[in-house]
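Listing S7. Sequence submitted for prediction.
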Amino acid sequence: MSAESSTITVRLVRSFEHRNFRPVVYHGVNLDQTVKQFINFVRKDVPSRTGLPPPFKNYKYDTMKVIHQAHKSKTGELIVSLEDDDKLILKEDSTLKAAGVANETELAFFCEEDYRNYKANPVSAW
């Protein structure tokens, strides 16, 4: 599979405290597009997904962070790692490739305000 046509898994994080997320797989993702273009694409695609419950379709996602890259070590966190934000949170003006996204990368897509609140007090509700 070429770098221009990659498979990316996007983990839609609805709640950090309740560990509430759903993965959505995207095939044929162009890694030369900007992060902002990919975020806009996912935002438009999510409401049309039939397998997702309404709370996931209507949520205010605004930030993407790398969770895992193929053939590299995984974090012990169940939802998303709370470390290395400066390296792992994708900046909207860079391309996916420049941000370190490669084929079979897994990304978290979440509300930054929820993430900051959870990071300040990382307690699970269950």
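Caption to Listing S7: primary sequence and predicted structure tokens for the chain studied. The beta strands are 6-15, 20-29, 63-68, 106-110. The first helix runs from residue 35 to 45.
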